Amino acid sequence: MPLQTIAILSPGDMGHAVGLTLDNNGFDVITYLKGRSERTRALSKLGMIQEVATLESLVTKSDLILSILVPSQAITVAKEVASALRSAKQTTTYADCNAISPNSTQLINRIITNAGSEFIDASIIGSPPGRGIPPRFYVSGPNTEMMVALDKTGVDIKTLGKVVGRASAIKMCYAALTKGTSALYLALLTAAEAMGLSEELRNEFLNSQSDTYRKMEKSLPSLPVKAGRWVGEMKEIAASFEQVGVTGNFHRGAAEMFDLLNKTPFSSETPESIDKDRDLLHTITTLAEYLPGRNP
Predict the structure, then answer these.
(1) Pairing between strand 156-159 and 28-32?
(2) Is-above-0.85 flag for pTM?
(3) Residue 137, beta-bridge partner list
């Protein structure tokens, strides 16, 4: 069966951009938005994504479903889709593209295949389409052909074999560095602020680690808008590492730092409303106020 209609759950920052690039490449893109925020609805329109009224309609009309969500919603949405597949008597292929552990992926695999549909393990590395280098969708499992058909449509598809779990695992290892490093930066700068050493540490970094400090200045002030979503991802990384005997304590600590950042007033911002003038010092001094025992 030719691939023509693709469903995206949900059209957030990444999902709507994926939808737009697929639309630009001749695919029909649909979604289901019950319970979603006004911002998500606006992004869906921006991505030229057509809304359908029910999940049953979505699984009936689509050839492929891409689940692009925060990790905490991945299993819940998979169960809802599986129920809709049974109700509609459909066997639509389901690709989980979320930042979840191989164990969570295996659970979703069972949920979808028990409903009679094919499952694809997928993960996304990189920025949304249209922002420079196309994102890489890593895929694995016995039936990845539908995802491979999307290669060079504004996304790059990388296959990792027939074993479900490999695609999600590479995302866990990659994000362990990229997002885990951001959490480490937050932790050490906040500790220095609490100890009254921010200026001294800044001067030392500028003297001996200037490139690293400039990277912190550029990246950390924008993190609050992402922190809430990253808490679950760090926990998934911790679980992934522990599954193979590597400590998960690094990334449980990272989850704590992102949870702390999510408690600041900055977390109410969106990518559209973020204060682009907020600097690193303001970010860290505010974060330090939310340390346990302090009264912000």
Answers:
(1) unpaired
(2) yes
(3) 124, 157
